[in-house]
């Protein structure tokens, strides 16, 4: 199931994060499956993303397709990548992240990030009418 952490998006003025990021459950598992060095490098990149913006020179991103992007960084031993998109109200969602030995992003990883992105969007479309009825 495609879910994002149930925590509310923090108020940027209070949290100091103008561009908050959330990881879907699968991406969170992938983050914690990385070794400590790679995990720390990726978390540092996410911190820069949240603090500055996806378009800041300190944050390396590349458009994949539509509104799906790739967040890039590296550790001492690996290239690190994460696929993300802008969800709503300034919130960004990471669908897939991974470490690799070369700078080229494997097609399978790109496809997995895209599939998860599309599944998340579809799940949100299906939940919207239900949430609307609950709010009445």
Can you walk through the features of this model?
This protein is an alpha+beta fold. Helices cover 42% and strands 26% of the residues. It is built from 4 helices and 5 strands. The chain has helices at residues 12-15, 25-33, 36-51, 107-134, and strands at 21-23, 60-65, 68-74, 79-88, 91-100. A 5-stranded mixed β-sheet has the order 1-5-4-3-2. The protein is globular. The model is unreliable at 5-14 (pLDDT under 50).
Summary of the model, kept short:
Strand 4 (79-88) and strand 5 form a beta hairpin. The protein has helices spanning 12-15, 25-33, 36-51, 107-134; strands at residues 21-23, 60-65, 68-74, 79-88, 91-100. By secondary structure, it is α+β, with helices and mostly antiparallel strands.
- Indicate the structural class: alpha+beta
| Number of strand segments | 5
* DSSP helix fraction: 40-55%
**Biggest beta sheet summary:** 5 strands, mixed
Give the topology string: H per helix, E per strand.
HEHHEEEEH
Helix tally equals 4
| C-alpha Rg (nearest Å) | 15 Å
Low-confidence stretches: 5-14
The portion of residues forming beta strands comes to 25-35%
- The mean pLDDT is 85
Which word captures the global form?
globular
Strand order in the largest sheet: 1-5-4-3-2
**Span of the ends, CA to CA:** 26 Å
Question: How are the secondary structure elements laid out?
Answer:
Elements: H1 12-15, E1 21-23, H2 25-33, H3 36-51, E2 60-65, E3 68-74, E4 79-88, E5 91-100, H4 107-134
Parallel strand pairs: 1-5
Antiparallel strand pairs: 2-3, 3-4, 4-5
Keywords:
about 140 residues; alpha+beta
């Amino acid at each position: 199931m495609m879910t994002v952490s149930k925590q509310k998006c923090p108020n940027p003025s209070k949290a100091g994060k103008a561009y908050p990021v959330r990881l879907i459950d699968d991406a969170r598992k992938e983050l914690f499956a990385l070794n400590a060095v790679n995990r720390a490098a990726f978390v540092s990149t996410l911190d820069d993303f949240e603090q500055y913006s996806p378009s800041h020179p300190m944050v390396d991103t590349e458009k994949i397709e539509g509104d799906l992007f790739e967040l890039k960084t590296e550790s001492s031993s690996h290239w690190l990548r994460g696929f993300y998109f802008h969800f709503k109200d300034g919130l960004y969602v990471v669908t897939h992240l991974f470490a690799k030995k070369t700078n080229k992003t494997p097609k399978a990883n790109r496809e997995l990030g895209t599939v998860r992105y599309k599944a998340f969007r579809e799940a949100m479309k299906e939940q919207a009418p239900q949430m609307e009825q609950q709010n009445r």
